Amino acid sequence: MLNLISRPKYLKRILPFIDTELIKVIPGVRRSGKSFLLEAIRDYILAQNKDNHTN
Predict the structure, then answer these.
(1) How many Å apart are CA 31 and CA 21, to the nearest integer?
(2) Are 10 and 35 in contact (CB under 8 A)?
(3) Which residues contact 28 (CB under 8 A, 6 or more apart)?
(4) How far is CA 49 from each of CA 6, 43, 44, rounded to the nearest angstrom?
(5) Which of 16, 26, 28, 41 has CB 3.0 to 4.6 Å from 32, enough for a Cys bridge?
(6) What single DSSP character describes residue 17?
(7) What is the value of pTM for the model shown?
């Protein structure tokens, strides 16, 4: 099993741009965590949608 490292610093930098029309580009070398960051963004959006539907 992989030990994944949470990157809240990067997630916080991207969150203000989530609901904008700007194209988001996440550059980086291979195996630097870009896909993991996208999964974290997805999880954040899904959690926000759940919270909005339960209130």
Answers:
(1) 27
(2) no
(3) 34
(4) 21, 10, 9
(5) 28
(6) G
(7) 0.73
